[in-house]
Design brief:
Blueprint: H1 3-24, E1 27-32, H2 40-44, E2 48-51, E3 54-55, E4 58-59, H3 64-72, E5 76-79, H4 95-109, E6 115-117, H5 125-133, E7 137-139, H6 141-146, E8 148-151
């Protein structure tokens, strides 16, 4: 067989396998916040919710009813940035910055986050080390390729997403 045909077959098989993996993997929703409308939670019934601790300068922990609602869904909850500013974690951050997000998350849900996903999946090497230092499992591009990830509809402003 021609090398080009073999390569084409391999590429098609890889894409088919990826599609099957995505179909069978847990569903996720990014950009979950009391400040963002998110009908997608009920529509898609995700397994994982990625919460923004402090969106529009409003800590999620201040909305106790929302925190209780999110907990009542019995989903895995991860931290999605701190404020979800555009390319937030491409800029090097310090411990105080990440700690604020962790503290807000913990006040809201009663436990510290175990997973972290940077907004736009953009993160500097220094911030990768900061996330690891805080015992957070970093989720990135591979997670996006192998999972079906939805966004809360109200988060699609390019300055925010």
């Amino acid at each position: 067989m021609n090398k080009i045909i073999i390569i084409a077959i391999i590429i098609v098989v890889i894409f088919l396998l990826l599609a099957i993996i995505r179909a069978l993997s847990p569903k996720e929703i990014d950009d979950v916040s009391p400040e963002i409308s998110c009908e997608e939670i009920e529509r898609y019934n995700p397994d994982i919710l990625w919460v923004i601790p402090k969106f529009n300068n409003k800590p999620a922990s201040e909305n106790k009813e929302w925190c209780k609602y999110i907990l009542s869904l019995n989903k895995t909850i991860g931290m999605h940035g701190v404020t979800h500013e555009y390319h937030e974690f491409e800029t090097d951050r310090n411990q105080e910055y990440i700690q604020e997000g962790i503290d807000i998350f913990e006040k809201c849900f009663g436990f510290k986050p175990k997973m972290f996903k940077a907004p736009q999946l953009k993160i500097s090497q220094n911030n990768i080390e900061l996330i690891k230092k805080n015992n957070l499992e970093l989720k990135g591009r591979l997670n996006q390729y192998t999972r079906k990830v939805y966004h809360c509809e109200g988060s699609q402003n390019p300055k925010l997403a």
